[in-house]
Amino acid sequence: MGSFLAFPVARTFSLLACVVAVLGLAFGGQGCRDFYAQIDESRRLAADLRLQFNQATDASNRAVMADTDAASTAFAGDAEKALQLVESDVAALLPLLRSLSLAKELQLLDEFGKHFAEYREVDRTILSLAVENTNLKAQALAFGSAREAADSFRDALGAVVSRVPSQQRCDVERLVAQATLAVREIQVLHAPHIAEPNDAAMTRMEQEMATLATSARLAVTSLTELVPADARPALTTARSAFDRFEDISRQIVALSRRNSNVRSLDLTLRAKPPLTAACEGSLRALQDLLAKEDIKATR
User: Fold this and answer.
1) CB 192 within 8 A of CB 205
2) Could you report the per-residue pLDDT of 1-53, keeping only the tens digit for each?
3) Beta strands of the chain (E only): which ranges?
4) pTM of structure
5) Residue 66 · residue 72 · CB < 8 Å
6) For the chain, what percent of residues have pLDDT higher than 70?
7) How far from the centroid of its chain's Cα atoms is residue 187's Cα?
8) Does domain 134-258 have CATH number 1.20.1440?
């Protein structure tokens, strides 16, 4: 009787053991598949994160180097879109790494986040300055309407001289030369002022421009007492051209003082590279570690 009962019991336990083994393999296989799927998704997100960050950096650099408002604005928009995708990738990658309990990878992602926060702040300043293009606008005024006003001033003074009798021209020509040269010297100062990053140096140039403007205006005032009546309309035209030139010169100085292009370029060349390198280093190390997780899982 005992041996009769023992056989079915033993067989039952054997069957149960087989079932448990099969179930273990099944669930173990499912766990492996989940692990590999999560690793693959983590690697995809890390690769996209690095790609979007590099694209954001490139677009930001293009915004700084662009020579029109439209181009600067377009590149700044591209940079902002890429930065938003970086943030989306980080938000998606973080819970995956947590579920996989990948401590080193989590540490690198956190490290990237800290570097990226600093990068984001600097880049936000760069882009806001780049789209203003104040130095480019000042340059356009200097070589455009300011030059035209200066030429009109010169031409009007030339018309004044032509109406003065030859025996009275000496003093008139001297004053005309004084006024014309002063305006030309102001024009010469526009270019270095636009390119100058130092406030003190710009102040010195502005003081020199003010002295030259005073010299030109005094010369025009002195001409009023020397020229005949038929030369007065040309002198009035010259005075109007000089007023226009001074107004444009003030606009140039104000735009140049803002220095948006000079400042954005300085930040791009000086402050941005170490932050970019730090972010890139963290992302590269993260990708390398995730690539090795496949090897570890197969051992």
Assistant:
1) yes
2) 444 444 454 454 454 444 434 344 444 455 556 878 899 999 999 999 999 99
3) none
4) 0.77
5) yes
6) 87
7) 29
8) yes
With vertex at residue 294, the alpha carbon angle to CA 293 and CA 295, rounded to the nearest 5 degrees, is 90
- For residue 1, what is the DSSP state? -
Q: Look up residue 5 and give its two tokens.
A: 């009962």
Q: Determine contact, residues 234/159, Cβ cutoff 8 Å.
A: yes
Per 3-state DSSP, the chain is made up of helix, strand and coil in percentages (nearest 5) of: 90, 0, 10
In angstroms, rounded to a whole number, what is the distance separating the alpha carbons of residues 65 and 50?
A: 23
Q: How many residues does the chain have?
A: 299
Q: Where are the domains of the chain?
A: 2-130+268-298, 134-258
Closest CA to 226 of 136, 163, 135: 163
> Does 283 score more than 80 pLDDT?
yes
Please answer whether residues 50 and 287 qualify as being in contact, where contact means their C-beta atoms are separated by less than 8 angstroms.
yes
Query: How far is 64 from 55, CA to CA, in rounded Å?
Result: 14
User: Burial code of 236-267, b = ≥16 C-beta within 10 A, e = fewer?
Assistant: ebbbebbebbbebbebbbebbbbbbbbbbbbb
Please enumerate in sequence order all residues whose Cβ is within 8 A of that of 60, keeping only pairs 6 or more positions apart, or say none: 75, 76, 79, 123, 126, 127, 130, 268, 272
Name, in order, each residue with C-beta under 8 angstroms of 25's C-beta and a sequence gap of 6 or more.
Answer: none
**CA dihedral for 148, 150, 153, 154, sign (positive or negative):** negative
pLDDT in tens, 158-168: 999 999 988 88
CA 55 to CA 49: how far, in whole Å? 10
d(CA 176, CA 160) in angstroms, rounded, equals 9
CA distance linking residue 4 with residue 6, whole number of Å: 6
Does domain 2-130+268-298 bear CATH number 1.20.120? yes
Block residue for tokens 């956190």: 110
pLDDT at residue number 35: 77
